[in-house]
Amino acid sequence: MKTKIKFFIFLAVLFLAKNSFALSFTQDYWTPTDFTTGDNGSAFFVLSVEIAGYESDFGLFTVDDIANPTTIVEKLLVFEAKSEPFSVANVYFKQDSDGWWAKSDFEDWQLFDRYFGFYYGVYTGGATDTTLDYLWYTDTRFNSYANGTPLDTTIEHIATDWNGIDTVGIYLDDQRGGGDRDWNDMTIIGNDLAPVPEPATLLLLGTGLLGLGVGRKRFSKK
């Protein structure tokens, strides 16, 4: 119980600190910064849903080459749209001779990468809507309708902010065509994350821990 209380206090502090960050649209890919908490080559993410009034999937994705991405290689679902307030999800990472692997509460172990972006799957009809409408990515070239048809590939629907150390905010503007740019349709706050540097300066990374919290709001399907 004490651990859970501390975790939510941590999230509250991060939300209050949001305005001191600068929203950015250039940080498409991220990596953990805490390489000391994983045991036996493993790492894990802890996520919590807050105020789940707005329905959206959330997950991670990897690409063929972060220096010149052309294809999404893997996606890992972390939250389903039906996730309730204060529900918790875990994402686990491990490395073996085949490479990096990841799993979540919704998906089993799969080959992944330690460098990844974030995506939201948008359901615009509320809690009873079972039809995915849009997929928005931190890398806008992959933005699309649910059927894969490109959509808003030059419009940012996900903004990030970073405190320059290890804390990141991931903010969604859900509506196609640019939306209202209020960046509060869904919010995830995470610690122990940093933007991926240029490929020439990438270091060999180990394992880490990331704690994330989620805030959502509802809107009507149009």
Q: Tags for this entry?
A:
222 residues; 15 strands; 1 helix; five-stranded antiparallel beta sheet; globular; mainly beta
Question: What does it look like?
Answer:
- The termini are far apart.
- With 222 residues, this protein is mainly beta.
- It is globular and about 45 Å long.
- A hairpin with a 6-residue loop joins strand 9 and strand 10.
- The protein has one domain.
Bulk shape: globular
Helix content: under 10%
| Biggest pleated-sheet summary | 8 strands, mixed
* Average predicted local confidence, pLDDT: 76
Number of extended strands:
15
Poorly predicted tracts of residues: 3-20, 198-210
* N-to-C order of helices and strands: HEEEEEEEEEEEEEEE
The number of domains is 1
Number of helical regions = 1
**Separation, N- and C-terminal Cα atoms:** 42 Å
Strand content: 35-45%
Structural class: mainly beta
User: Roughly how many Å is the radius of gyration?
Assistant: 16 Å
Biggest β-sheet: strands ordered side by side in the sheet:
7-6-5-2-15-13-12-11
What's this entry about, in short?
The chain is mostly beta strands and 222 residues long. The chain has one helix and 15 strands, in the order H-E-E-E-E-E-E-E-E-E-E-E-E-E-E-E.
Would you spell out the secondary-structure blueprint of this structure?
Layout: H1 2-16, E1 30-32, E2 42-50, E3 56-63, E4 72-79, E5 88-96, E6 99-104, E7 110-111, E8 117-122, E9 134-137, E10 144-145, E11 158-162, E12 167-172, E13 186-191, E14 193-195, E15 209-216
Parallel strand pairs: 2-15
Antiparallel strand pairs: 1-14, 2-5, 3-4, 3-8, 5-6, 6-7, 8-9, 9-10, 11-12, 12-13, 13-15
